[in-house]
Write a structure and sequence with these properties.
By secondary structure, the protein is α+β, with helices and mostly antiparallel strands. The protein has a single domain, classed as TusA-like domain (Translation Initiation Factor IF3, 2-Layer Sandwich). The chain is 29% helix and 35% strand. The chain has a 4-stranded mixed β-sheet, with helices on one face. A hairpin with a 2-residue loop joins β3 and β4.
Length: 75
């Protein structure tokens, strides 16, 4: 999936992946896609809930080699 920007949040514990994601989203335009890489297992539920609450769309999430990857479209 193509993304506008990639955010490396690997090695960060809650709530830092959300904090960094929120900051990165502020730099994007509506419709842009942010790709987030995280290793904190809590990020899956946190980012899903955060995207929904913020009016963004979680397009896809996968896990590869213990790295969670999320594609979030800015709403």
């Amino acid at each position: 999936m193509e993304s506008t920007k990639i955010l490396d949040a690997k090695g960060l514990a809650c709530p830092m992946p959300i904090v960094r994601t929120k900051k990165a989203m502020q730099e994007l335009n509506v419709g842009d896609v942010l790709e987030v890489h995280a290793t904190d297992q809590g990020a899956k539920s946190d980012l899903t809930a955060w995207a929904k609450a913020g009016g963004h769309e979680l397009l896809q999430d996968t896990e590869e080699d213990a790295v969670l990857k999320f594609w979030i479209k800015k709403g």
